[in-house]
Amino acid sequence: MTLEFVPAPLDRSAPFYVAGHRGLVGSAIWHTLETSGFENLVGAGSDELDLRDRDAVRSFFKARRPAYVVLAAAKVGGILANNTYPVDFLSDNLRIQVNVLDSAREFGVERLLFLGSSCIYPKLAPQPIKEEYLLTGHLEPTNDAYAIAKIAGILHIQAVRKQYGLPWISAMPTNLYGPRDNFSALGSHVLPALIRRFDEARRDSSEVVTNWGTGTPRREFLHVADMASACLHLLEHYDGPEHVNVGTGEDSTIKYIAEVVADEIGYSGRIEWDKSKPDGTPRKLLDVSKLRATGWSPSIGLREGISSTVAWYRDNVSSLRS
Questions:
Q1: d(CA 41, CA 11)
Q2: Which end of the chain is more exposed for a tag (fewer CB within 10 A), N or C?
Q3: How far apart are CA 11 and CA 150, in angstroms?
Q4: What pLDDT, on the 0 to 100 scale, is given for residue 2?
Q5: d(Cα 239, Cα 140) in Å, to the nearest integer?
Q6: Exposed, middle or buried, 89 (CB in 10 Å: 0-12/13-18/19+)?
Q7: 58 C-beta neighbours (distance < 10 Å), count
Q8: 82 — pLDDT class (breaks 50, 70, 90)
Q9: Helix (H) / strand (E) containing 172
Q10: Spatial separation of the C-alpha atoms in residues 100 and 71, rounded to whole Å
Q11: Do residues 118 and 74 lie in contact, with contact meaning Cβ atoms separated by under 8 Å?
C-alpha cells in the first residue's frame, strides 16, 4: 500500500540540484535556497554539463544523486528568436527535459519541480487564464515550438506521477524579469529589450524610440525573486498532477510598460510603434487563485521591480551578452 504524500519542509542538508542555476530563474532560485538554509546546493553550467547530452546527464545524476531538483534550464528567447529558430527551441528543450527527467527518475529524486511558461496556453484563451485551459485552443504561432516543448514537460511530469507515483510537480510562470535577464538585441524578451533600447537611446540622445507592434497587448510581469520564492513554497506546500500558475494576477499594456521603463531610464524623447511588426498574443493574464490558496502572494511591485532591474542593468551592461 502506497502512503499518500504530504508536502512538508524540505531537508536543508540534502543535495538539491538547480538545473540552469546561472540563468535568470535558476540564479534567483539558487539565491532563495541559500538564504533559506539549504547547505548542499548542486549546479553545473553549460560549459560543464550539456543537458542535451543524454549520457552526460545520466553520469551527472549518478555521481551527484540529488534528492531534490528544480528544472529551470531551457533555451529561451523573445518573439523574434522563437519565430526565427523554431527547430532549436523545440529540439533543445525537449532533449533537456527528457534527459533531466529520465535521469532524475532513475536515480531516485524525491521531489522535482518543472518550470514551464504561460505561452503553453491558447492564443485566445479566456482571461484570466486558468490551468484547465491548457490544450483547449490554438497556440500563438510565433512561439508554438517552444510552447509544445513545455507542454510535453507538463505531460511528462503527469506521466511520472501516474506510472511511478513520484510527487513531482509543475509550475507555469508568467513573464519574468529581473537581474541576470537576457538583454541581447536578438534573444531578449519584451521588458529587458525595452530597458536596453531606452538606455541606448538615452546615451545616444536619440529623439525617438520605435517599438514593435501597437503597444496595446496586455502582459503580466513577475519579478524573478518572487518566482523563486513561489518555487520553494510550492515544493513545501503543494502536491498534485495539475500544473500551477505563478504570477501576480495583474497586467498592463506594453505601452504602459514602455512608458515606465522610459521614465526609470530617464529617456525623454518620443515613443513610437511599428504596427507592421507582430503583437503576439493580445492578452495573457494568469488566474493565480490556486497558488494564492496555498498561502503565497508576490511582494515586489512592478515599478519597484523595473527600477531595480534598470539599476542592475546599468551596473552590469559592460559585461552582458550583445
A1: 12
A2: N
A3: 28
A4: 52
A5: 29
A6: buried
A7: 15
A8: confident
A9: strand 169-173
A10: 8
A11: no
Tell whether domain 16-181+221-249+285-300 is in CATH 3.30.70.360. no
- Rounded to whole angstroms, the Cα distance separating 58 from 84 reads 31
Q: pLDDT at position 221, please?
A: 97
Please tell me the distance from the alpha carbon of residue 107 to that of residue 127, in angstroms, as a whole number. 40
Q: Does an H or E element contain 158, and which? A: helix 144-164
Measure the N-to-C terminal CA separation of the chain; round to a whole number of Å. Answer: 56
For residue 281, what are the contacts with CB-CB under 8 A and spacing of at least 6?
119, 123, 140, 217
* Per-residue three-class SS string for 49-69: CCCCCHHHHHHHHHHHCCCEE
Rounded Cα distance, 297 and 279, in Å: 29
Residue 218, strand partner residues: 253, 283
Residue 317's nearest CA partner among 199, 186, 207, 189 is 199
- Catalytic annotation, residues: 146
| Torsions phi, psi for 115 (to 5 deg) | -105, 130
Domain assignments of the chain as residue spans, ordered by start: 16-181+221-249+285-300
Per residue in 272-307, pLDDT (tens digit) is 999 999 887 788 899 999 999 999 999 999 999 999
Q: Residue 299's closest CA among 230, 252, 218?
A: 230
